[in-house]
Design brief:
This protein is of the alpha+beta class and 141 residues long. Helix content is 28%, strand content 34%. The structure holds a DNA duplex (12 and 12 nucleotides).
DNA sequence: GCCAACGTTGGC
DNA sequence: GCCAACGTTGGC
């Protein structure tokens, strides 16, 4: 069981949008190899924080992996006819009663080294168990 | 295989 | 809107 953090721009796809649809959805359109590799490493039942980038800049909820990495339906095949971009499918688990902002994370010594902070451009990154538990607690769970 | 130029992400 | 950080591309 591993923990992750996945970013989405709320203008495009917010946590509430995902909850409202209520069905598993592809985490598509990731076009970065590191982020893709992280998704390929995900196992069924792994959980991830849902982070709102640009607008909000906070962790707002938890989602879980319900389908292993598979070809991204929005990706075009390359010149060899291969689709190199993959994604997992996710479902919402629960909303954080109190969103945890990036500002708070940066101010919390135990969280200041998170991939979210250190690799700010990475849209799908790992979260350690200690980080996970602390953020859940800070989020009111 | 190196590296400069360019593009993109995302915080500020 | 700017810029830092990083990824990608392409010339050599």
């Amino acid at each position: 069981m591993a923990y992750w953090l996945m970013k989405s721009e709320p203008d495009v796809n917010s946590y509430d949008d995902v909850v409202a649809r209520g069905v598993p959805e592809e985490w598509h359109s990731v076009r970065n190899y590191t982020a893709r590799n992280n998704m390929k490493a995900m196992q069924l039942g792994d959980e991830a924080f849902f982070y709102h980038s640009n607008v909000g800049k906070e962790i707002v909820g938890i989602i879980k992996v319900v389908a292993l990495a598979h070809p991204d339906s929005t990706a075009e095949p390359n010149e060899k006819g291969n689709i190199v971009w993959e994604c997992v499918d996710v479902l919402p688990v629960k909303k954080l009663p109190k969103p945890v902002t990036l500002e708070t994370i940066k101010k919390t010594p135990e969280l200041a080294n998170m991939a979210l902070v250190k690799l700010s451009r990475l849209s799908v990154g790992p979260v350690t168990e200690a980080e996970w538990k602390l953020i859940c607690k800070m989020g009111g769970l």
